[in-house]
């Protein structure tokens, strides 16, 4: 059994008028994996704790499978929560820790089979006899996961469960969590401030800022079509280039985008994405340019959908499978970052000429006007 979780216009105000969550509405479908993503203090944990029943809702409604659940005690919601800190009982073995929720439910019951089956699912059978002090961080978090799923909850609430682990283990465990929750088909709400983790895990990602939802979309959509500058800047590594520009329409009717000392012309006809630029005429806009949308090229190498920004390569960061190229341009801010494959740009012109140019695929460059 898996649950639909809905929040309707939910607000949480802590003492001293701290508004942690502000009129938040969200529908999470049964079996869905939703990631709540945002910077520290934006209200992610508060949302999770309200769903769990560990925090009162100041106003608004929480619905579980369509039923009002604001007043249901935490233990009766059928949800399991895993915290950042493993919160295992230090004086109990892995097995005792995992069987604890079952024993609370029905004291005296033989829990061995259920605990063993869950341990098998997580690949932690060999950890059952050990105490938490004898486990590594990753192993403790696996046991904590085991304790959460042993009761076969109807939803998981995971609060930064991997943040105490090293980078390699995080990557491995997050893949395990994704596989496990999908295998169990259980609704999962996963809180993180790590955008890479959010992108790799969620069916959908809800981006929060100051207790307000900024965007709820598929991870790919959040990355490629951010709703605003905050989302664009928060998601993606390297950080998106945000360039100030103005839109102009000279006499020939083709739109120009003016980056201070440089100007690019949009191809005709305008794509649906670019149509909205017409209403921005004469206004200052922010153009978001992802690094991978820029490449180093010269005028003779341009494709029809591209535009050229001239610049000087300032610095190249070698990153193994690609290099991050810092280019100074006349745009504001002056520095643009682009990614390149390892092969240096060898076609055409002297080395000095190659250094002096930077080109951007126009479709990407003006794909989204952010504000
Ligand atoms: P983090 O990623 O750092 O855990 P978060 O996004 O989970 O942050 P919350 O812990 O939900 O954020 O906190 C949201 C806001 O509410 C913050 O401004 C925080 O200081 C405040 N807050 C949280 N708990 C309480 C509390 N018990 N009393 C008063 N204010 C609180």
UniProtKB/TrEMBL annotation:
Residues 327-371 are annotated as: Disordered. This is ABC transporter ATP-binding protein. The chain holds residues 1 to 371 of 453 of the full protein. It comes from the Bacteria. The keyword Metal-binding does not apply. Residues 5-235 form the ABC transporter domain. Keywords: ATP-binding, Nucleotide-binding, Transport. Transmembrane segments: none annotated. The keyword Heme does not apply. One of its GO terms (molecular function) is ATP binding.
